[in-house]
Amino acid sequence: MDRRSVTVDGNEAAAYVAHLTNEVVAIYPITPASPMGELADAWSAAGRENLFGVVPDVIEMQSEAGAAGAVHGALQAGALTTTFTASQGLLLMIPNMFKIAGELIPTVFHIAARSLATHALSIFGDHSDVMACRSTGWAMLASSSVQQAQDMAMIGQMATLESRIPVLHFFDGFRTSHEVNKIEQLSPDDIRSLIDPRLVQAHRDRALSPDRPVLRGSAQNPDVFFQAREACNRFYDAKPGIVQGAMDRFAALTGRSYRLFDYSGAPDAERVIVVMGSGAATVAETVATLNARGEKVGMLEVHLFRPFAVDAFLRALPESTRALAVLDRTKEPGAIGEPLYQDVLTALIESGGIDGAMPRVIGGRYGLSSKEFTPGMVKAIFDELDAEQPKRRFTVGIVDDVTHLSLKYDPDFSTEPDDVTRAVFYGLGSDGTVGANKNSVKIIGENTPLHAQGYFVYDSKKSGAITVSHLRFGPRPINSPYLITRANFVACHQYNFLDRMDVLELAEPGATFLLNCPHGPDEVWERLPVEIQQTILDKQIQLYVVDAFRVAADAGLGQRINTVMQTCFFALADILPRDEAIGHIKDAIEKTYGKRGQVVLDRNNAAVDGSLVALHRVEVPHAVAGDRRRLPVVSGTVPDFVGRVTALMMTGKGDLLPVSALPVDGTFPTDTARYEKRSIAQEIPIWDPDLCIQCGLCSYVCPHATIRMKVFDPAGLNGGAEVLPTRPWKGKEFPGQHMAIQVYPDDCTGCGVCVDVCPAVSKEVSRHKAINMEAKTDEVLLRERARLDVFEHLPDPDRSTIKTETVKGSQVLLPLFEFSGACAGCGETPYLRLMSQLFGDRALIANATGCSSIYGGNLPTTPWSTNADGRGPAWANSLFEDNAEFGLGFRLAVDQLEAYARALLKGLAGSLGDELVHAILDADQRTEDAIREQRSRVSTLMRRLDALDSPDAIALRNVAEVLVRRSVWIVGGDGWAYDIGFGGLDHVMASGRDVNILVLDTEVYSNTGGQASKSTPRGAVAKFAAQGKGIAKKDLGMIAVDYGNVYVAQVAIGANPLQTLKAFHEAESYPGVSLILAYSHCIAHGIQMSTSMSHQKEATASGYWPLFRHDPRLAGAGATPFHLDSRKPTLPFREFAMKEARYAMLARTQPARASELMQLAQRDIDERWHFYEQMAGVERSVPDRVKGVVS
Amino acid sequence: MSVDLRTSYLGMELAHPVVVSACSLAFDPANLKRMEDAGASAIVLPSLFEEQIVHDQMAVHEFYEFTSEKFPEALSVFPEMEDYNTGPEAYLRLVEQAKRSLSVPVIGSLNGTSAGGWTRYAHLIQDAGADALELNIYHLVTDPLIDARAAEARYLELVAEVRKAVSIPLAVKLGPFFSALPHMATRLVDAGADGLVLFNRFYQPDIDLQTLRVVSRLVLSTSDEVRLPMRWIAILSGRVKASLAATTGVHTPEDVLKLLLAGADVTMVASALYSHGIDHLRVLVEGVRAWLEEHEYTSVAQMKGSVSQANAPDPEAFERANYIRTLVDFTGSESTR
User: Fold this and answer.
1) Mean pLDDT in residue range B122-148
2) Which of A182, A215, A383, A910 has the fewest Cβ atoms within 10 angstroms?
3) Given an 8 Å threshold on Cβ–Cβ distance, is B56 in contact with A597?
């Protein structure tokens, strides 16, 4: 049968089978499995039916634990049900997985296997998550390629129905889940023919039904539990045979043959590697090369890891095997060895070895968190097996200079055939490079007999992110699951990358280099950094240039150069005849963009035509010219750790860092983002001091703390007065002082929000403000760097002298959150920056996983910073689901330590002086001034303690710092607060303890790609709400208000800056639980980010986001603690909503439903306002405001 | 004896000369029916704006492109929709629906920005069933290097191109700001226009004193404004071989009557419908009928153009500017002292 060749990624390959073979899909988004759920949802939304002629019901739950519960229930009630997940999500499913297996319910879970968070979170791939499920009783089936992700999904489904044992089908996160490859797709008829309807019926027959009632989930006593647990053994005994039977039937239909353990290599191999997952493909490729060179090696790929079929394992190994290396993509500290190694050893021992002889067996770890696993590493493992004294435990792919477990390998060893085109593309996340390359892979994969593979590496920034695309094209299936190291084509889509990185590092001699460049072929050479010129000469690289920005702009595509660069690639790569390639590109444009409209097609097609005209070959001279040099990664004096470790990560060479360079426990220094000068803005804001009214708003709204205001003694300027413009401070608190507002030109993202909010307008030219965006020319950049140098050397004023209750005053405080990797114009980060300014020098922050934990804690650098005294926020991320509890733990510890310190202090009063001791114990620390005084007292205390050597004095010295009031902040997004973490949040709200909860509410799961949360409002389109969310947003604020003793504020920094500031002060000073719900616009809203803060005014004016504060301190007889801070809505909701794509898109695509939802949403607003107005008049007294404290 | 209110516009026979001008009320199909029920003799649909289509399509494109493939955890942030409805389809469906549900002629209206756009969309509107097409041309020349000849040539080329692309009657809606309007009108007719619509009432920008920003806002016309089209229709009546439609300031039966007397074949009404409701059409038609009956006219045809410049007792009155007349009168009375 002719089957369709499709070019898809592993997620799509698996989800395709899952959607066709299931009736219920309950999911929760988690990287890298989210696309499987999203695809299933999109297919169901489009009405795609499963094999049974019904559209599967796809439901997003509040957590993976919830998804697993829903899956369990749906299975019990008779529906074929599945889910997709990874990592922490899989851990949350484990309790239900035990139940599902214990009840012998057939299902397949598809897992994009990902690292578990240990010393750090990682979104990348390894097997630590699936290996944590070994004891659940699930069968574990591994895929090693995109093709297999589809095939094993099918085989797993067949086998689970027959065996009743649930199957955990897994493939490597990112490496397989996100690799795009050409596969042969099963047709629905294929799938139908492989599913036995009698087995489906048997599943339904076992379902709970009142027509034949049974009971499951009983509680059993010691008399029978054990026996009952053993009753399932026969099913496990039968499972391997059933899986092999399914594989055989699958092979009979498709010709693709699989075994439980697939051996490849020399039939008389002596050395064999045992491996599962994508690494198997690398081993297989290396084995073929080594055998062709006369070696005798082999590879055993494990498909069915559990139940481990000992017989099948032994049968698969050549009798000649004398040494085995077993590879695990996971780490179990303290174990004798990792799981596969242990199972292999047990199998061999139990069987008395191979043909009676026990081979040498060594075990190694590789590829944790998507660490590269290359043919060179495979060869090193085979070499190790040949060594006289091989390492019994080893690692490969890193340099372990501490425990010396790592194998040395030859990075230049290659198995890549000559007839494969290997192309590497450097681009920006925002320029469409990845999208175009995925398109190119599809073009070749689906229109030619050639095979194609695409893999994409992204950096961890959300603004100015760099992407590197690795594409292979060749005549045979491409199963090389590792990055390209010898590219015969390199494209650099951004000219300024040349200053920052060696884009020709991967180019092989004679490679073609395509550069997007504003300079023509005759003038470009001496404008290239000399390092690049030298590489071009050394490697005899052919250089081509195209001014892609000009071509794109001429075609009306702005900065989107994807089509231009794609066309040039096809023109140069010589994979297809040029005219044919152009035809395919235009077809792909039609396919990809057709729905968006004819104008989009016309402009992209015009860009294609314009590209070839603008593409030029450069006649490379024989010598280097000019004096442009690549910029140093960091300049000036940097801390040792930054110089040794961080700098290497920043240049993309973190792989080279040895084990000794890294902290043993995941503890990293803060205050390092300042060394990562990415200089990504094309325009930056420049201050016009003559117009400035010193309101501080520009700094107040800045998402990246790159516009700052400072007040200082002008005498301190010294020679800087001519460099840095300043003006006298307008205000009584700093007589004789000057102020300046300064941009950080290399840190600014150019979002323009500061300019939008600036209220000071020129009388002569109305578009000119006190701050204006200007092109970042070399001249502007150098000037601003010089100004910044002066600005930074000016001392910060004494915090206790600043009126922090004013917006202006708050902006004189030093931000202790700066230059994060958040999106340009981010709506969350201004709140964090403000919090850091007000309380950062004594803050402990518990941060839920999400956007804020990524831009706040994703290496290489950290935006949380320190002041001149070295104080600043101490930050930690535990999990997504437990952040409220995690932060409460901070408070519990601080309170305990403080109680201990106070007890010691009292006991030592005689030695330390009663006056000091009582002053410390009785200190009211509600103001900056009072905190400064307490800091001074504690310093005195420390000095006096130094003179004492009693155990109590030593103990007190160790904990005395907590006598300065700590500010505990619990930070996260709406996905955490409204959904996955709500149970914990609720419990913490009920605790009465002094914690501050800041919810950065973007009304959608921003970090994982815009899935709906319970905060998503009615009528908004989001993933899993593609028809517009039908139900109203949960009112978390009023749930909290209901407690009575919780301080609650709903704020929008752009709508009412002062109310936000008040709320932060009140929340922090309230000695109980405080909750701030902070409106945070997001790119997922589809708004103009530069005017996002003005847009927030409309959010409030329409009543969409009313502002309020509920302060239990104001409760009492006749008192009304709930205060509405915004005015009665004056703007129809529709007028606000239609400025956001999330609402406007529905009005365009489904006008009738949009209109209905809009009306309901308006009624939601009206009703809520009516309710809040009444609340504002409600008298309330709170008997026990906080635990033991009534202020 | 009843008065014959029939008139002819763009070769179509209409029951009377009160036509609905292009306005957003007609986006709602229910309103279209109400307009017919209230007595509209023809309906000009709101304009299809090519600029809007371009903007919408590129906005959708840029939104998806801007948010895609940037970050490993979020390869996209928004679900792909089945259809974005950014093209002319919604408008064409409106034309089709209007044709299906109405018995009066339906006139499409088009505002293009590119040569290809004008002809492509004109063709599509014709195919959707429009009985005629009104070209809503709006070129604001801001470049000092472009002279009047070049600006006018652009109008003429465009009309000629569209004329070639469609076979249905073609009207051109003009602004009043031509140095030599009768000459321009003649050349437009030569280029293929079957009718002229006087005048396009452009949105005029305003300045918000609060924000110092330029804002656009809809200001409805008043009856006073009817005199501008009336003057030019009176001047053109009988001089150009094309239908003449008057629009801007038509609020009362008296406004309609004056325009007919000046030579209009039809009068078009929009602002009055916003102010008084769609049923106001009935007031206009019945008011015209009553006046004609009262003044013993037998038909609209009889009175049409009877006070045009050519037929008026004082043709020069249409040429003089008012302040001259005032000044002369004043001087005259001075001289008699």
Assistant:
1) 94
2) A215
3) yes
Query: Which H, E and C letters describe A774-832, residue by residue?
Result: EECCHHHHHHHHHHHHHHHHCCCCCHHHCCCCCHHHHCCCCCCECCCCCCCCCCCHHHH
Q: Which residue of A lies nearest to B54 if distances are taken between CA atoms?
A: A599
Quick one: pLDDT band at residue B115, thresholds 50, 70, 90?
confident
| Residue A708 to residue A747: CA distance in whole angstroms | 12
Choose, out of B67, B77, B94, the residue to mutate when testing the contact with A (most A CBs < 10 Å): B77
- The residues in B 263-322 lying below 8 A from A, measured between CB atoms, are none
Average pLDDT estimate for B261-271: 97
Residues 6+ apart with CB under 8 A from A408: A380
Taking CB atoms and an 8 Å cutoff, what residues of chain B touch A761?
212
Distance CA B265, CA B17 (A): 7
ipTM of this predicted complex? 0.92
Q: What is the chain B residue with the closest CA to A38?
A: B79
Residue A1007 DSSP label: T
pLDDT score of A1: 58
How many helices and strands, by DSSP H and E, does chain B display?
A: 12, 12
Confidence of residue A779 (pLDDT cuts 50, 70, 90): very high
Chain A residues whose CB is inside 8 A of the B28 CB are none
Residue A432: list chain B partners with CB under 8 A: 65, 68-69
Q: pLDDT for A662-710, tens place per residue?
A: 999 999 999 999 999 999 999 999 999 999 999 999 999 999 999 999 9
Whether residues A1086 and B63 touch (CB distance < 8 A) is answered with yes
Residue B27 and residue B45: Cα distance in Å, rounded? 8
Give how far B162 is from chain A: nearest CA, Å: 20
> For the range A380-386, what are the long-range contacts, defined as Cβ-Cβ under 8 Å and sequence gap of 24 or more?
A380/A407, A380/A408, A380/A409, A380/A410, A381/A273, A381/A325, A381/A327, A381/A407, A382/A271, A382/A273, A382/A286, A382/A290, A382/A295, A382/A297, A382/A325, A383/A407, A384/A325, A385/A271, A385/A323, A385/A324, A385/A325, A385/A360, A386/A271, A386/A323
**Going by DSSP bridges, is the β-strand pair A1074-1079/A1047-1051 parallel, antiparallel, or unpaired?**
parallel
Check A1141 against B63: CB less than 8 A apart: yes
Report, as residue numbers or ranges, the catalytic residues of A: 31, 64, 114, 1007
Model confidence, pTM? 0.95
Contact A1145 B83 (CB under 8 A): no
Quote the CA–CA distance of A17 and A50 in Å, as a whole number.
9
Burial environment of residue A49 by CB neighbours within 10 A (0 to 12, 13 to 18, 19 or more): middle
* B85 has a chain A CB within 8 A of its CB: yes
Strand order in the sheet with A323-328: A261-265, A297-302, A271-275, A323-328, A360-366, A393-396
Residues 93-152 of B with CB under 8 A from A: none
A1188 pLDDT band, cuts 50/70/90, is: very low
pLDDT digits 0-9 by tens, B195-209: 999 999 887 889 999
